[in-house]
Amino acid sequence: MKILFIYPPITPIKPNQAVKSHPPIGLLCLATYIKSIGHQVKIIDALAEKLNWLQIKKRIKKYSPKVIGLSVMFTAYYQDALNLSKRIKNNFPDIKIILGGAHVSINPNSCFQNNFIDFVIFGEGEKTLENLLQKIDDRKKYSTINGLVYRQGKKIKKNHSRELIKNLDELPFPDWNLLKLNKYKFDDGFQMRKPCFIVETSRGCPNHCVYCSAFAVWQHHWRGRSPQNVVDEIEILVKKFGAKEIAFLDDTMSLDKKRMIGICNELINRKINIKWSTPNGIAHWTISKPLLKLMKKAGCYKITFGIESGDPSLRRWIGKPYSLNEAQKLTQYANKLGLWTNATNIIGFPYETMEQIQKTLNYSLESDVDIAYFFRLGLRPGAPVYDIFEKEGLLPKNKKLLFYENKSCNTKNFTGNQLVQIQKEMYNEFYKKRWGNKLKNILRIKNKIKNIEDLFYTINQIKNIKNLENGWVSQKSIFIKKQI
Predict the structure, then answer these.
(1) Which of 31, 175, 244, 281 is within CB 3.0–4.6 Å of 306 for a Cys-Cys bond?
(2) What is the CA radius of gyration of the chain?
(3) CB 341 within 8 A of CB 379
(4) What is the DSSP letter of 94?
(5) 216 and 105, same domain (yes or no)
(6) CA atoms of 28 and 176, how far apart (whole Å)
């Protein structure tokens, strides 16, 4: 059977807003699996290829698929998928249209507001799609397919959730030949080497952070691939696609410390010359100093810690009741090893105070992290904190405002505009304090330079840091106290 997977074109929320494209790893994994069980598959990444409807239509007509799967990863761009499905159905009424992805997993029934969608797959997609393709011509069997939402007359039927795949090693490695690799940059300026490829070594996270909606797909279960399987994939990326760096995009890569040690040892023992980082963040309470040392030896050069707040009580409320003191010790040890250290922080929780925000900035400086990110809370349907904002009457009437980069939701203590200003001040104060003294900069980076590659990367990082600083300059400090 011919299956066409499409990552839809995206309409910017604001005029002239640039929407970055990244390899759609979830869609790629799904297409690869369906190909491995004997179906013909193609992927159209309309965002990366900058395709309009007429170009998409031409490709659909040429390929003539029986089924089209549309990816709906983000609530902000959900309408784009609906618009595309309408055009497809109007022009190709016999093609079955399936929606999948994070957004539809949160609220699958909402996707049937029109007659252009035939099926919605919620949760983990591989086995559900396989099952659906086997029974797609027999409506009587739709009710037996777990993980599926479909129409039965005028009613919307949602079946039971599907059991998660227990052994991820059984899945094929993503087939990057299904994508037009020349359409992706594979480098955002912060990588040491390029091209940099994405690898996911695990799925899911057992934590219950209030701002996260990832559980809609993976539930609160964590499953990890074996070290041998992970490094087999990396070897293929190096030999077949010329990968020089890996970005591990797991939600919780190091949850199983023994497995993490195994991945590092596999990389070392096979003598794979690769650099890698953890841009999605790594749970600091799952690692140790010996593990950090081993990660460095295995090619890790940059580590990101998900701190979120410098206030212990707020961290407990968020769902991260772990020691900030231990996180600080690990950060300082990582710096000593020569690793670049990043930390992510979030402001704008519904009951957060100015004192708590100030503690987040203070901790970022005291922890000695190289680069701190201060994000304003992104509210996504499905996340527990979204329901709290709704209950408190804090959500805007126009939900599209939640996705504007320069907008933020009001909280109990701040307006959205105040949070935007506070964010600017936090960046301004952090980077002036951390990187404003040239002598301290030299002392700071001396452990990070072991060879000529480290030197060039450090020079590039300093440029990136300056760009970050310049992009967030606030001429006056209204909310944040100046750091001595």
Answers:
(1) 281
(2) 23
(3) no
(4) T
(5) no
(6) 7
